[in-house]
């Protein structure tokens, strides 16, 4: 039982005894005491004044006196205006820590213990370009949210949707046909997704050049943008692809194969995987079938040019295209088919789409259309809308080739980790092989933590150098703290100190020790809140707070050189639990922590 729950139960007894009354549970408002005041738990008395019929200060004093007299775990109290600050005995916190010690999977619920299935879609790349900085935020959020939901007892299915068809894919294919001269990843030595991405940029360059040429010939710019020859060729290629033209299908399979092999390398470096991958080239036909059913039911309308639309103006939105006049589908069409297929296969209780906030409107429309088609489960769709990632140089644009490539960024992070760590002498005691592993841990840990510590809804500015700082709110600082504690515990084992985990009973904790135990007791609640809010940032900042508080304690107090054997034993056991929670919390972020550093 944590401190809040314990105090709430005792306050119920106090209210019954003092005022002969019972109050609704939400009337007893407790919170962790602000660190500038003495206390562990604070009661806000204002909601109890009708019951006590006393002033806030009188009510707080009466309740405080009752608790101190009748509850042995309450050491003392103080009243500041209408706030009752309650200080608990060291014995309470020792008992709380012993409960943590005794739990094998502290803070984590058994797998699928809720009996509910959640599907999480993340990554969702296009096969016309490599993964970039924006994809990295998506991937890291999706992976971490999946791990957090698992820790909350859900059965989690992690899926990827590969956007492997459409006009943007044809643009890369057409540019390769025109300008590639048979170039392959093998002949060029380039990673397959990088190679295809270069031709997407080449298409855009040629497209703009042809627009300028038409404008010089007197064609209006808006008309030129629609009638430029290379765009018309790409549109014709898409029609041929949907008609299953063997030549186009063969080229499509070849170039997509290059990209998939490139993606797999990046996913492996990031340490993520998927339970299933869906392909739009399969699901768009299902979407077309749904559109036909919707037409038959009168949910959709076909216009004179043959295009199919849904009218959402009565719902405060607008009209939405579902099939073009030439019969080709749009993103919405294939998303409808994909959603239906997934529900038919998995019967999920919740479907979380990890997609950037520029698609907010798209998901409003998707859920509304699915509901109009009679799918009650559309209410179980949740769009985890995250903000964009920007760099000090500004926004990124794929078509112009100004994106930060994911592989290049990972390389930069690892190289920065190497240079900074060597400069600080972090690897002086490690073998070359161990140093290599730790360098990669630090580089990737810095990248993941820096992105995940920010609330997903916020746009963020990413600075690679700032993310690797052994003294700030960074993954590197937390990893170093973990390694430091493991070093202390190894020395304790060598000295044969405190091999068991049975805490001594009669010791007095200092303020920093109490604070560390209090933070540890918060871990299950933080994991639960992170799951409810789909927010790895709550985990990240909690782990930082724990690591920072430990380092402050470590600077002021000795662990192994402590003369009082009972206090020494307590500090060793406390350190074991801190390092355990740091490791578990970082794993929920997809970050590994080194044993040595």
Secondary structure layout:
Blueprint: H1 3-19, E1 29-32, E2 41-44, H2 49-52, H3 56-70, E3 74-80, E4 83-88, H4 90-102, E5 117-121, H5 133-151, E6 155-162, H6 167-179, H7 185-188, H8 192-216, H9 221-227, H10 229-242, H11 246-270, E7 276-279, H12 280-297, E8 301-302, E9 308-311, E10 319-323, H13 331-346, E11 350-356, H14 360-372, E12 381-386, E13 389-390, H15 406-424, H16 432-452, E14 460-461, H17 464-467, H18 475-494, H19 511-521, H20 523-533, H21 536-556, H22 565-588
Parallel strand pairs: 5-6, 5-11, 6-7, 11-12, 13-14
Antiparallel strand pairs: 1-2, 2-4, 3-4, 8-9, 9-10
Helix pairs in contact: 1-3, 4-19, 5-20, 6-8, 6-10, 8-11, 12-13, 15-16, 18-21, 18-22, 19-21, 19-22, 20-21, 21-22
- What distance separates the N and C termini? 36 Å
Unreliable stretches, pLDDT < 50, 5 or more residues?
Answer: 395-401
Task: Tell me the overall shape.
Answer: globular
Q: What is the class of the largest domain in the CATH system? A: Alpha Beta
Radius of gyration: 30 Å
Strand content: 5-15%
The tally of beta strands, per DSSP, is 14
How would you explain this protein's 3D organization?
This protein is an alpha/beta fold and 597 residues long. The chain folds into 3 domains: 3-88, 2-Layer Sandwich (Gyrase A, domain 2), CATH 3.30.1360; 122-390, Rossmann fold (3-Layer(aba) Sandwich); 406-588, Isoleucyl-tRNA Synthetase, Domain 1, CATH 1.10.730. Helices cover 56% and strands 11% of the residues. It is built from 22 helices and 14 strands. The protein has helices at 3-19, 49-52, 56-70, 90-102, 133-151, 167-179, 185-188, 192-216, 221-227, 229-242, 246-270, 280-297, 331-346, 360-372, 406-424, 432-452, 464-467, 475-494, 511-521, 523-533, 536-556, 565-588; strands spanning 29-32, 41-44, 74-80, 83-88, 117-121, 155-162, 276-279, 301-302, 308-311, 319-323, 350-356, 381-386, 389-390, 460-461. The strands form 4 sheets. It has a 5-stranded parallel β-sheet, sandwiched between helices. Strands 1-2-4-3 form a 4-stranded antiparallel β-sheet. The protein has a 3-stranded antiparallel β-sheet with strand order 8-9-10. Helix 1 (3-19) packs across helix 3, helix 15 (406-424) packs across helix 16 (432-452) and helix 21 packs antiparallel against helix 22. The protein is globular. Residues 395-401 have low confidence and may be disordered.
């Amino acid at each position: 039982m944590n401190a809040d729950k314990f105090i709430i139960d005792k306050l119920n007894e106090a209210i019954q005894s003092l005022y002969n009354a019972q109050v609704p549970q939400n009337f007893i408002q407790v919170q962790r005491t602000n660190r500038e005041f003495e206390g562990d738990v604070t009661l806000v008395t204002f909601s109890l004044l009708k019951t006590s019929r006393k002033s806030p200060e009188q009510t707080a004093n009466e309740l405080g006196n009752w608790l101190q007299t009748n509850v042995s775990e309450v050491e003392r109290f103080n009243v500041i205006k209408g706030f009752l600050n309650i200080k608990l005995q060291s014995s309470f916190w020792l008992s709380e820590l012993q409960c943590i010690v005794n739990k094998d999977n502290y803070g984590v619920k058994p797998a699928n213990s809720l009996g509910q299935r959640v599907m999480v879609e993340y990554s969702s790349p296009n096969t016309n370009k490599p993964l970039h900085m924006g994809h990295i935020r998506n991937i890291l959020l999706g992976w971490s949210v999946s791990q957090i939901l698992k820790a909350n007892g859900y059965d989690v299915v992690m899926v990827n949707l590969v956007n492997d068809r459409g006009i943007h894919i044809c643009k890369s294919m057409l540019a390769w046909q025109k300008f590639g001269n048979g170039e392959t990843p093998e002949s060029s030595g380039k990673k397959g997704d990088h190679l295809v991405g270069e031709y997407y940029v080449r298409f855009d360059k040629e497209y703009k050049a042809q627009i300028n040429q038409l404008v010089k010939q007197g064609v209006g710019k808006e008309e030129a943008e629609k009638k430029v020859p290379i765009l018309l060729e790409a549109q014709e290629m898409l029609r041929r692809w949907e008609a299953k033209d063997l030549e186009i299908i063969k080229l499509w399979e070849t170039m997509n194969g290059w990209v998939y092999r490139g993606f797999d390398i990046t996913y492996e470096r990031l340490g993520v995987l998927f339970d299933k991958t869906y392909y739009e080239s399969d699901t768009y036909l299902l979407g077309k079938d749904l559109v036909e059913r919707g037409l038959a039911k009168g949910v959709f309308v076909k216009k004179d040019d043959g295009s199919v639309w849904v009218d959402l103006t009565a719902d405060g939105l607008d009209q939405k295209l579902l099939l073009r006049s030439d019969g080709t589908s749009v993103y919405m069409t294939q998303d409808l088919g994909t959603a239906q297929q997934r529900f038919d296969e998995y019967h999920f209780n919740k479907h979380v789409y990890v997609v950037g906030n520029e698609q907010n409107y798209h998901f409003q429309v998707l859920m509304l259309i699915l509901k109009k088609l009679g799918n009650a489960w559309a209410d179980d769709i949740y769009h985890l809308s995250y903000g964009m990632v920007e760099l000090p140089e500004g926004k990124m644009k794929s078509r112009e080739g100004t994106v930060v490539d994911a592989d290049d960024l990972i390389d930069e992070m690892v190289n920065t980790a190497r240079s900074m760590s060597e400069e600080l002498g972090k690897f002086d005691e490690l073998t070359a092989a161990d140093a290599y592993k730790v360098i990669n841990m630090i580089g990737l840990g810095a990248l993941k933590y820096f992105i995940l510590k920010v609330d997903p809804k916020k746009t963020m500015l990413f600075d690679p150098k700032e993310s690797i700082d052994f003294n700030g709110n960074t993954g590197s600082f937390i990893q170093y703290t973990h390694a430091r504690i493991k070093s202390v515990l190894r020395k304790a084992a060598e000295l044969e100190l405190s091999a068991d985990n049975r805490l001594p009973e009669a010791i007095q904790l200092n303020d920093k020790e109490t604070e560390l135990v209090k933070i540890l007791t918060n871990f299950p609640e933080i994991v639960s809140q992170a799951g409810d809010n789909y927010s790895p940032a709550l985990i990240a900042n909690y782990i930082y707070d724990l690591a920072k508080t430990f380092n402050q304690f470590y600077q002021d107090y000795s662990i192994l050189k402590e003369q009082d054997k009972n206090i020494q034993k307590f500090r060793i056991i406390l350190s074991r639990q801190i390092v355990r929670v740091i490791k578990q919390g970082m794993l929920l972020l997809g970050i590994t922590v080194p044993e040595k550093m």
